[in-house]
Prior knowledge:
- The complex is a heterodimer.
- By secondary structure, chain A is mostly helical.
- Chain A has helices at 15-28, 41-48, 52-64, 83-108, 113-127, 132-139; strands at residues 37-38, 68-71, 75-78.
- In chain A, strand 2 and strand 3 form a beta hairpin.
- In chain B, the strands form three sheets. Chain B has a six-stranded mixed β-sheet, with helices on both faces.
- By secondary structure, chain B is of the alpha/beta class.
- Chain B is elongated, with a radius of gyration of 22 Å.
- Helix content of chain B is 34%, strand content 30%.
- In chain B, a hairpin with a 2-residue loop joins strand 12 (245-251) and strand 13 (254-260).
- Chain B folds into two domains: 3-206, Rossmann fold; 218-304, Alpha-Beta Plaits (2-Layer Sandwich).
- Chain B has helices at residues 3-6, 47-54, 95-105, 111-120, 134-147, 164-179, 191-197, 215-221, 263-271, 285-293, 295-304; strands spanning 7-18, 21-32, 36-41, 62-67, 70-71, 80-83, 152-156, 183-188, 200-205, 208-214, 222-228, 245-251, 254-260, 277-282.
- Chain B is built from eleven helices and 14 strands.
- The chains are: A mainly alpha, B alpha/beta.
Amino acid sequence: MPAILTVDPRSGVPIYHQIVEQVKxxxxxxxxxxxxxxPTVKQLATDLTVNPNTVARAYRDLERDRxxxxxxxxxxxxxxxxxxGRAKQTLxxxxxxxLNEAVREAKSIGLDRNEVSDIFSGILDxxxxxxxxxxxxxxx
Amino acid sequence: xxxxxxxxxSVKNLSKRYGRIIAASxxxxxxxxxxxxxxxxxxxxxxxxxxxxxxxxxxxxxxMVLLGGAPLRPKTFxxxxxxxxxxxxxxxxxxxxxxxxxxxxFRRYAAGxxxxxxxxxxxxxxxxxxxxxxxxxxALALTMAFSIRPRMLVLDEPSSGLDPLHQRHxxxxxxxxxxxxxxxxxxxxxIGQVERAADHVAILHQGKIVVQGExxxxxxxxxxxxxxxxxxxxxxxxxxxxxxxxxxxxxxRMIRAFVRGNxxxxxxxxxVASPTSIRVLDQNLEDIFxxxxxxxxxxxxxREV
Lengths: 140, 305
């Protein structure tokens, strides 16, 4: 499990935030399965060489967001029901925020709606090769 | 229960002058149990003075220090390890002699732990301390410090002279100690180390604490609003006086405001003046350090922009 987690301490993004997001991503993608045990706080802190309190805080946030359950003395586990859906919803929110930021940036440097739309279509075409939008544009 | 009740190490209004030089001025911080507290500062900022006054190695002019919830007393040192910035080893004694010394002085000494640490740092216990490199001397001092399974650790530049691998070992030892409930206070020049291992940080500058808090919270709360204007940055009245704005750098067509708290509000105010671009950037600890510490450092950084 630790192999799927990496943190960048130099980033401006708080480390606990990085851990929370990566665990959610792993759950949403099925890399971490329902019922699967997470490393202990101490183990993960040592593996990542980050502060134990930081890991503990990340776990508390994951509990609050109902992604994991912690049973005292037994450890932390990925929750069974609906967890992947909830994790995916969070990641959808993150994506929305990133797109919002990009569009705000585009507007601030003076691009108009159509220019932004063209850039966005180009990016969509790159990642969603068979999208209906791409087909429609080819026919134009 | 507030932070002070939970604090294992508590420093209140500590001040110390050497002649006309103010080495520490009204230094105050609390370190909760199980925390790793990083003290950052430029050379001569007052880090070592603070440590020495805390431990009774220098007499503070004023202020109060509680270690393990009590004023300094002999018992405090039974479970506290201090590693000074400069070697306090005896040149004519071997590593094994030093550990024997530690065993006799500390009831908490664990021989098995000491052997593990010697191996971790690749130290030959039969060599005299005077024959060790600076890095090896640091490693021996750390081996002694961690061999007593301390409940409190005060480490002054613990990784100076160590190679990157052994520096990582020191961070691992600190993390391991904190995970076991020990409280760690350390100073470092290396912001990356503090950023990685510490959950709390204080930045000392000219004897005063200029920033302190939880590392993650500082990162989350300190943002940079960066905007460019054509042809030049307008006056933006009142921006510098905004209590949330720590510092403003103007550089030709660009302005950067270092903001604590709500960056959106500052961005909105700048945006009213119709910049050609504006964005809000996250700050890492180095950005926060530079913003807090200094005119000289920051004007140099400003020229690079």
